[in-house]
């Protein structure tokens, strides 16, 4: 009984301490909030005083020719400068916090095999790497790190140059080799020309083509070979890679454009058409119209070769029945024969084939 009372007293004591700690925590939070409010009020008062002093100084300059900076003006300028620095530091800290919360940026190395990716690579490299390096040697080192293949060889050839010009020379070589607009435009056209044919209901293939056409249009519409995109022959070469049903729909759409809109069919029309085709087959509920279950359960038809057989006979020492079938007439039912009949058939067969 004594132990129970002791335990209860200890529990009450712990609860009192817990409540006391919570009360102190609330008092601390209240004091901190009050201090922040007082700090804000003080900054506001100081700023208002500084502005009032500046306004008073401006009013005095209307009637009095200034002979030099007064102590009050100097103090106000110092206060404004201090507050401006505080704001800059706060903005910088917020910007760094936002940058830290973002996911890590990834830069894929460039190997020179697909020159259509070069301009985006160069833009990302300048933004993520070049802008954060302090020396030209660092920039050249990182450029070597993020290039492979023939592009790496071009960059590495500038490693023996003077450090102050090596990076600039490497960028110049890369731009000359991979950044020429005519070369990039020609690479886009060659990729379209070599695009494989798309099977019916190939959702991913249609989406891939649609994405590439959008990328191609954005680069080529104002480029040196942009007019070639609107060439009907070039467009038809690309249309012939689409599934047959899509070609039929494209034929109807081109007639509608020529007859009703009364204008020429353009590459942008084809881009929108392929986009719609990709969206059509990728609908979440109604995009799939092929009955995969029915096609899977459909019985396979096999062709069997006909064999001319006179009789299939099995002879044993017992008097059991044997089966003889003829494949000349498949509709004929199997009939059981006795041992005596089988012997007669065998004798006839041997007499016909001496």
Automatic annotation (TrEMBL):
Keywords: Coiled coil. Residues 4-34 form a coiled coil. Residues 320-340 are annotated as: Disordered. The keyword Coiled coil applies. Pfam families: DUF1759. This is Uncharacterized protein.
């Amino acid at each position: 009984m004594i132990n129970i009372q002791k335990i209860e007293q200890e529990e009450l004591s712990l609860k009192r301490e817990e409540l006391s700690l919570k009360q102190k925590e609330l008092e601390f939070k209240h004091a901190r909030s009050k201090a922040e409010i007082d700090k804000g009020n003080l900054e506001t008062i100081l700023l208002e005083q500084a502005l009032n002093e500046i306004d008073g100084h401006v009013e005095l300059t209307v009637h009095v020719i200034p002979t030099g900076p007064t102590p009050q003006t100097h103090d106000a300028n110092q206060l404004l400068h201090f507050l401006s620095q505080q704001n800059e530091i706060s903005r910088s800290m917020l910007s760094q916090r936002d940058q830290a919360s973002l996911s890590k940026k990834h830069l894929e190395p460039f190997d020179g095999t697909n020159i259509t990716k070069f301009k985006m690579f160069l833009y990302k490299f300048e933004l993520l790497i070049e802008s954060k390096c302090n020396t030209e040697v660092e920039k050249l080192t990182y450029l070597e790190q993020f290039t492979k293949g023939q592009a790496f060889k071009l960059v590495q050839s500038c490693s023996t140059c003077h450090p102050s010009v090596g990076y600039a020379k490497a960028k110049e070589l890369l731009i000359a080799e991979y950044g020429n607009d005519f070369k990039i435009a020609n690479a886009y056209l060659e990729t379209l020309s070599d695009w494989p044919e798309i099977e019916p209901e190939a959702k991913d293939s249609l989406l891939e083509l649609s994405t590439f056409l959008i990328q191609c249009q954005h680069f080529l519409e104002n480029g040196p070979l942009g007019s070639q995109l609107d060439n009907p022959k070039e467009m038809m070469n690309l249309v012939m890679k689409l599934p047959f049903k899509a070609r039929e729909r494209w034929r109807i759409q081109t007639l509608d454009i020529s007859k009703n809109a009364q204008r020429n069919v353009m590459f942008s029309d084809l881009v929108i058409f392929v986009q719609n085709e990709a969206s059509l087959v990728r609908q979440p509920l109604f995009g799939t119209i092929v009955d995969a279950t029915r096609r899977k359960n459909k019985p396979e038809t096999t062709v069997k070769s006909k064999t001319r057989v006179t009789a299939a006979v099995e002879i044993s020492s017992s008097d059991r029945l044997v089966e003889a079938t003829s494949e000349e007439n498949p509709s004929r039912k199997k009939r059981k024969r006795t041992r005596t009949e089988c012997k007669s058939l065998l004798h006839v067969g041997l007499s016909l084939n001496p």
